[in-house]
Structures are given as C-alpha cells and as structure tokens.
Design a protein that fits this description.
The chain is an alpha+beta fold and 730 residues long. 44% of the residues lie in helices and 18% in strands. The chain contains 24 helices and 17 strands.
Length: 730
C-alpha cells in the first residue's frame, strides 16, 4: 500500500500521525493488480458504422487508432521508446495534413491520446465529405504502409528532433508551476506502477541526450515495429452508408498487395517536391524601408516601411518559437449599436472564410500558428513560428491584407448554421459560457459585451460581418508589427520589405483612429450585489463553476505602478483563497484569479474601470454561497489587517527568474506594454526601460503594507455591498 499526500502542508508530522492512525493496522499482503489485457489481432480492425445522429448530412468521420502496450518509465530504454513515438506522431500527422490539403476541400485533422495502466492509444480523426470517405481511408493506410517500407526522411527526422528537444526544455522552465494534482499522479505512478520519477533537471538532461541519439537506422526499425498491423484499428462513422466493411477490407488488401510488391515510392520521390514548399510564388511589388532606428540598450530595431507600416524586431538567442504581434487602434467601440451584433462576430466569420479560401492555409497552420482578433479598441493578429518559417509567416500576413474574397450567399448560410451548432448549449464549453456571462453582467448588460448565444445567429448579417473584417485588415499604415526571436539579421530586413512593405496602401485611410481619441464602449459595473444562475443543457455532474467579481479602479497618476502591482496581488489572492477554500474548508477543487480591463484606451483622462475575478470549481451546489462569503471575508481581512509575512514571502518566492523574463513570449509582453503605456511618447527605448525598472521596484518593495494599501485603493469598500456572482451548474 502507498499513501500519497501532496499539498501546501506546514506540519508534516500531523499528516504522518493521521496516516499511522488509519493505515498502520492494515494487514500485510501481496498486492493484487487486476489486469484486463485486450485481445491481440494480426490484421487491422475495420469497422463501418452508420450514425444518423451526425450533425452534418452527407459527411463521414474516419478514426484511425494505434494501440501500444505501455511499459511506463521503468528504465532508460522506456524513455527512449516514448521519445521515438512522439517524433513519429509528429511526422505522420504532418504527412497526413499535406495529403488531405491536396484534396478538393481542406480537411481538419484532430489528434488525441488516451492512457491506461496497460495501454496507450493514439487517435487521429478527420471529417470529410461522404463521397471522399474511401479516399481518406486509403490515404491513411497508404501513408502508414509507406512509413513501414521507407521510414522517414532526413529533414523530417531533423524537424522531429527539434520538436522533441523543445518539450523537456519547456517542462524544466515550468517545473515550479507543477500543481498538486500533477505531483500526485507522478507519485502514484511511481509507487503503484514502479515508474521512475525523475527530477525536472535530470528528466530534461536525459530526454535531450536520448533525442540526440536517434538516427535514420533506428527510426526505420522503429517504424516497422510501431506501425505493425496488430496496432491499428479504423472506425468510420457515416451519416449514411458511403463505405461498407467489405469495401474497407478490399482497400486494405489492395494496399497490402502494393506493399508486398514494393510499389510504394518514398515520400520524397512522390510528394515532397510539390507539398513541402508551402511558400507560394507571388508577384509582389516590394516596399522599402524609409526609416531605421536602432535601440542598442534593449536590442531592438524600429523600421518605418514605405506603405506607412511600423515594424519593430528584437533579436534573441532563444530556441523557442519566434513571436509576432500586430495591432491597430480602433475596433468595435466605433461601430453603431445597430451593427454591433453582426460586427462582433466578424473575427470568427472572417477567420473561417479566410482560412478556407486557400487550400494551403490549413496545412500552413501546422507550421505557423496564427490567430486574429477584433475587440472593442483594437484589431490584432498574433503569429508563432520557428525561425526557419519566417517567410511563410510574413506571407500569411500579406495574404490577410490583400486577399479579396467574395463568398457566395450559400457559404454564408452554411457558416451561420455551423455557428448555431457551435453555440448550442450541448456543444459549448463550461469555461467559455462562464467567461462570456461574467463579462456581460459585469458590464451592466452592455451590448458590446453580450454573451454569444445560438438565437443571435438569425439576426446576424454575415455579409456585413465579412465586409467589416476585410476593412479591419486593409490599411497597413495604421498597424504596428513587433517580432521577437532568433532572427537572421542578414535576411530579415529584405523579407519585411518584400511582404509587409509590399502590402498596398489604400488611396484613402481606412479605419484610421488615434489612441487617445477612441470612443468608449459602455461598461458599468453593477452598483450592488448581482447573482446569476446559469445551467448547461447537458450536465456533467462535476460540481459547479462559480465566478465572484469585484470592480477595480485605477487612476492615471498611478496607473503603470498599479498594473504591475496587480500582477503580484493576483498571485497573493490566489494563494490565500486556495488556502482557505481548498485546504481549510475543503469546498473548492480549483481556484484561479484573473483581471479584465474593458478599457484599452488608457490615455483618456479620469479613472479606469476594471474587474478582478475569482474563478472557482466548487464540489457541490450547496457550497457555492459558503465560498462567496469566504472570499469576501478574506478580501476584507487583507484590506484591514494585511497579509501575513509568510504569505508575502510565499508570493515573493514565485518571482519570475531572469531566465523566465528572457523568454521570447516574456520579452514580447514587455514590448507590448512599452508601446501601450501612457509613458510611450515616440521613444520605445525610454518607456521600455522605465517599465522594466518599475517592475523590479514593485517586486523589491512589495510587503504587507503595500499589499494592504493597494487593495484598499483599488477595491470597493465594503466589498460585501458591491460584487457579482455567476454560478454555472454543470
């Protein structure tokens, strides 16, 4: 028997005594592990199933699963096997995405992994048109057979190893943030299943050393073993019969015969030439750099391009992803109330139309992660990519600004129907429903913060939403783009000039707004206590989500310092509330604290509204009010008495390390804060350094008195009389 206790425990002897009291007299005996081995099969399992409940008519979903017996991390070789499996997963998913993107309509692959004590199962699924079901099935089988015959290519091995090397580095950097649940699972696997429990540093060193040992010969042998027929099952769900089980067997036999004959060419001979080069040939009239300014103290370079776009890049030596952010002021707050409903869905509708406008874009997303957002005060995009894919990332941005698409009315109608399904109660995620409802209530039911519901879809003008989206990303002269990462300084200027500088500037300004003169979207936190109950159509029986929100007030004179202090105070409040609700009262499974700033236009005069939200997962409905009362009480205590020295020290111990502050994402956040700060007046070097020094002072000077006075100044008094509560029954 193993008794595992993980948590924020100050007196361990009390826990040991309790364990002895309850478990010491348990009779000794050999542990009995119940094992239920799955029956082996020498050929792939093939199942065709008709499911009339499928949402979309004339469509199929093809599921391919690989099942492996799980050995656990009992020795170094087990770790080596796990790394090779991760590498092969990345390669096969990449190949399938390239293959499916060449079909008539882009296909979105989904990937998941399920673990038990004895087995690990990897599931790859793809949704397709019914008439393409058999083609999708054969594509799966061909690519799996091709890897058995030929293995993988040198460049795939190199990319896969780079991917595997990033994982242990990321885990090591985040090892201080391991939750109690993660530690409990790790110790359970160690004591119950004899799996090794490495220290974060040793695990990172081991995985890096083993990854570097992988070579072409090893991976070829591993492909033959891992993609054996005994590991594979295929299940097809169809809205009606497009493929029968007999047809599946014939397809399998055909591909098996080809494999025995050696008829499969290697991936590079047949596919790589046309599909790996995702960069499209374009006739672009390259722009020019009209102004260049170097900031040596912060390692940044500012450019002004000939089309008016402002670009800043900061070169680092980090191996993590290059991060790119672009933004322009002016958003939904400038839209009239009659158009706000349609325009608020512009980023969702626009991204879907734009994404599927090019057959290459779904495949590109595997290499370049990008997202587009239009909120109340900004239009923005964010892109993450490897430094070798910078040209691909910049080409995506060029297409965003220059694509001139005109979808048919039928496409708009299909899109609206799809959104109705996504927003139906049965398909919504509890966390999304909670966040949207909280925003709407905290804003005083403002139409600019209305929670999305399926019923709204009948009132949306999709054409208007699409036109608004196109106007949002049309004028390059209003945008600032920032890049942070390991960039090749010899080529970055020419690439920026070609793709970003080559975006045509319209004859007249489109959506040209000044940061200090934006229209304010109505946001009025309720003056009293508001309580709202929300229920999901399909309950999970996993307790209740509760969000308790309080208004925050900032003032221009102390705004920058307050925003930095708020980051530290959020950590303090999370630790304190977790200690009370989880460890003392035992009524909350999880506690999180976040803040919301509804007013991005910080340069206006007067006080700034905001909210601080306590997101709780409560064990049952009866405990919800008890949790609310406890949170309100603890905040009042902190305002009146202040935090204990132990609590303050606990928060200070979580101060980001120098290594964490030098990550690309952290450096990007610092750049965005410097450009978005009231301190910025055209000199990024100055605002960047002032904010950096302010942040250091905030951590250095933080103590119980600072926490007490800041909470008094920011939060309402008393908190019992002004807050909102949203309970989501799930």
């Amino acid at each position: 028997m193993a008794v595992i206790v993980v948590g924020d425990i100050t007196e361990t002897q009390n826990i040991i005594d309790l364990i002895k009291t309850y478990f010491e007299r348990q009779p000794r005996g050999m542990p009995q592990h119940l094992e239920f081995p799955l029956p082996k099969h020498t050929e792939p399992r093939l199942i065709a199933h008709v499911d009339s409940a499928l949402v979309k008519w004339r469509m199929s979903v093809v599921y391919v699963t690989f099942m492996f017996e799980k050995e656990g991390w009992k020795c170094v070789n087990d770790v080596f096997i796990n790394i090779q499996r991760m590498l092969l997963q990345k390669v096969i998913l990449g190949r399938l995405k390239k293959r499916f993107s060449s079909m008539s309509k882009p296909k979105q692959l989904q990937y998941s992994r399920d673990d038990s004590h004895m087995y690990t199962i990897y599931v790859v699924s793809v949704e397709c048109e019914g008439y393409e079901t058999n083609k999708v099935l054969e594509t799966f089988l061909v690519e799996i057979a091709r890897m058995r015959v030929h293995g993988i290519k040198e460049n795939e091995l190199s990319e896969g190893k780079d991917f595997c090397l990033c994982i242990p580095k990321g885990r090591y950097l985040n090892h201080h943030d391991r939750s109690s649940e993660q530690l409990r699972r790790t110790y359970t696997s160690h004591f119950v299943y004899n799996e090794a429990d490495f220290s974060p540093k040793l695990e990172a060193q081991l995985m890096i050393a083993l990854t570097k040992r992988i070579n072409m010969e090893l991976i070829k042998n591993f492909c033959e073993m891992q993609f054996a027929a005994s590991n594979l099952s295929v299940i097809i769900f169809q809205s009606k019969t497009f493929v029968t089980q007999e047809e599946m067997k014939r397809s399998l036999q055909k591909i098996t015969d080809f494999e025995k004959e050696g008829s499969f060419p290697s991936w590079s001979d047949e596919e790589m030439e046309g599909l790996t080069n995702l960069i499209q040939e374009m006739e672009i009239e390259s722009g020019k750099i009209v102004e260049r300014l170097e900031h040596f103290d912060i390692g940044a370079v500012e450019l002004i391009l000939s089309n008016g776009m402002q670009v800043t890049y900061q070169c680092t030596k980090n191996d993590d992803k290059v991060v790119l952010r672009g933004f322009s002021y002016g958003g939904l707050s400038e839209v009239t109330e009659t158009d706000i409903l349609s325009c608020s869905y512009s980023s969702v509708i626009g991204q879907i139309i734009w994404l599927y406008s090019s057959k290459n874009l779904p495949m590109i997303r595997d290499k370049v992660n990008f997202a587009i957002e239009v909120d109340e005060y900004k239009r923005a995009f964010c892109v993450n990519f490897d430094s070798s894919d910078i040209e691909l990332a910049l080409q995506i941005l060029y297409l965003l600004f220059t694509s001139d698409l005109e979808p048919e009315e039928e496409e708009f109608q299909a899109l609206i129907e799809d959104l109705k399904i996504r927003l139906s109660p049965a398909h919504q995620q509890p966390a999304d429903v909670l966040i949207d409802t909280v925003k709407e209530i905290n804003s005083g039911k403002s139409c600019y913060y209305k929670a999305p519901v399926a019923e709204d879809m009948s009132n949306i003008d999709a054409t208007k939403a699409w036109q608004y989206f196109q106007n949002c990303f049309r004028d390059p002269s209003s945008f600032r783009v920032i890049l942070v990462g390991n960039l090749d300084t010899a080529s970055v200027n020419s690439l920026l000039s070609r793709y970003l500088g080559g975006i045509p500037r319209p004859h007249r300004p489109i959506m040209k707004f000044q940061r200090g003169k934006l229209t304010t979207a109505p946001f009025h936190f309720p003056p009293t206590v508001i309580k709202e109950e929300v229920s999901l159509a399909v309950g999970s029986g996993n307790g209740m989500y509760t969000c308790i929100s309080f208004p925050l007030r900032f003032n221009n004179q102390t705004l920058e310092e307050d925003l930095l202090l708020l980051i530290i105070l959020r950590n303090l409040l999370k630790v304190k509330v977790t200690q009370v609700l989880r460890h003392e009262k035992g009524i909350a499974y999880n506690v999180d604290v976040d803040t919301f700033n509804p007013n991005g236009d910080w340069s206006c005069s007067g006080s700034k509204p905001g909210t601080i939200n306590f997101n709780l997962l409560i064990k049952d409905n009866d405990a919800a009010q008890m949790a609310v009362d406890a949170v309100v009480h603890e905040i009042e205590q902190l305002k009146e008495v202040g935090p204990s020295q132990n609590l303050v020290q606990h928060v200070l111990d979580r101060r980001p390390s120098l290594e964490e502050e030098e990550r690309n994402t952290s450096l990007m956040n610092q750049m965005l804060q410097a450009y978005g700060s009231n301190l910025y007046a055209g000199n990024i070097d100055q605002s960047y350094k002032i904010l950096r020094d302010m942040n250091r002072r905030a951590w250095d000077l933080f103590n119980a008195d600072v926490a007490k006075s800041t909470l008094k100044r920011m939060l309402p008094y008393p908190c019992q009389e002004q807050h909102t509560i949203v309970n989501l029954r799930c």
